[in-house]
Amino acid sequence: MQITLIGYGRMGKEVESIAISRGHEVILRIDMENIADLDSELFGRSEVAIEFTTPDTAFDNISRCIKRGIPVVSGTTGWTERMPLIRRLVESEGGSFIHSSNFSMGVNILFNLNKKLAGIMDGLSVYDVNLEEIHHIMKKDAPSGTAINLAEDIIRECKRYKSWHSSEASEQDRIRIKSFREGQVTGTHRIEWNSDVDTITIEHKAHSRKGFAIGAVFAAEFIHNKKGVFTMNDLLGF
Rounded distance, CA 20 to CA 153, Å? Predict the structure, then answer.
């Protein structure tokens, strides 16, 4: 495939390495300095775009890809309150789009384990949940998009929880997400269910960005000849 990378920071460079190793060609690298290249003839030759940018720019980047008829993979978080608009745009333009707060295969397995465990806990009120995420000091958003997804899945499956928060207070019907920023930590997400007599923990710890990049390239391979809005569950067959 001929790929455009939108966002050429650490993740963009990792995605490039994986894409090339799998026989793809990166024909264009777009960053803040050359954002106008989204209107270029070269961009129009892209078979897929992979977007890792910022919450402030993601919606516009994705919209421009869809309007150019280019399938787009996005791993940017912090903008998804506008997802319904993107869904409508994909439908009206006959586009192709896949988004995930985390393209790691392991994290998506964690998402499914988390939902199953939360469903079990719906009938076991002796357990209370704690959710924690740890990332490197350069990560701008807190809580992470992955942590928010985990909390929202628990809320859907375990009806005694109504919402999530990130304050210091403990609230019986709200899930507290604790966020820590430490050194160069790639990403750790931990869900604990505590009772008076025991604790059940599920955790994912990323060793590098490579896992995220592999998943993003797999997602690009999955959607480049499809139409519609997809998730990692579609890719993984969950």
Answer: 35
CA distance 238 to 227: 19
Q: Which domain holds residue 123?
A: 105-206
Q: Say which CATH number the domain at 115 has.
A: 3.30.360.10
Pair (17, 51) in one structural domain: yes
* Judgement on whether residues 175 and 120 belong to the same structural domain of the protein: yes
Phi, psi of 86 (to 5 degrees): -65, -40
What predicted TM-score, i.e. pTM, was given to this entire model?
A: 0.83
Using only the alpha carbons of the chain, give its radius of gyration.
Answer: 19
62-103 pLDDT tens trace: 999 999 999 999 999 889 999 999 999 999 999 999 999 889
Q: Is the pLDDT of residue 209 over 90?
A: no
Q: State the CATH number of the domain containing residue 71.
A: 3.40.50.720
Catalytic residues: 135, 139
Under 8 Å CB-to-CB from 19, ≥6 apart: which residues?
3, 26, 50, 217, 220
